[in-house]
Design goal:
The protein is mainly alpha-helical. The chain has 6 helices and 2 strands; from the N terminus they run αβααααβα.
């Protein structure tokens, strides 16, 4: 199941039903769009839209939104109901978002992700702040 830009509701509505019943492995990497991860990238990393602190605050608020949690829980239950009863074994992997930056070296201190707009340098302190904030 894969679709760029999808939120939990989209996955439940449009993607679960397209998976074949004989599927033995389901990998999920979801909720980034639900919380606004793209807004964080645009404001904090690529530096071309929005305010970084606002994007992070919105993502934190969305992260604890009961609708997102309940939608995610309902998705897992739906997958279990649809697939785990039709096969001997169906494995569900929920992948986490990896740390976007490493913060233990100065190697990226001269890197900009958006050179055209003179985005921020990815200084070690900046990366530490982003990792702590996400």
């Amino acid at each position: 199941m894969s679709r760029s830009g999808a939120v939990v509701f989209d996955v439940r509505k449009n993607q679960v039903s397209t998976v074949k019943k004989e599927t033995g492995l389901i990998a999920l990497s979801i909720t980034g769009n639900d919380i606004g991860f793209t807004a964080i990238l645009k404001a904090c990393v690529f530096y071309y839209f929005g305010n970084c602190d606002t994007a992070i605050a919105n993502a934190r608020r969305n992260l604890y939104n009961p609708q997102i949690f309940n939608g995610y829980s309902a998705l897992i239950k739906e997958i279990q109901r649809n697939f785990m009863t039709t096969r001997d074994v169906t494995t569900i992997y929920q992948t986490a978002y990896l740390s976007f930056f490493e913060d233990y070296t100065e190697q990226c201190n001269k890197v900009r992700f958006n050179r055209a707009l003179r985005g921020p340098l990815m200084l070690q302190d900046t990366r530490k702040y982003y990792l702590k904030s996400f």
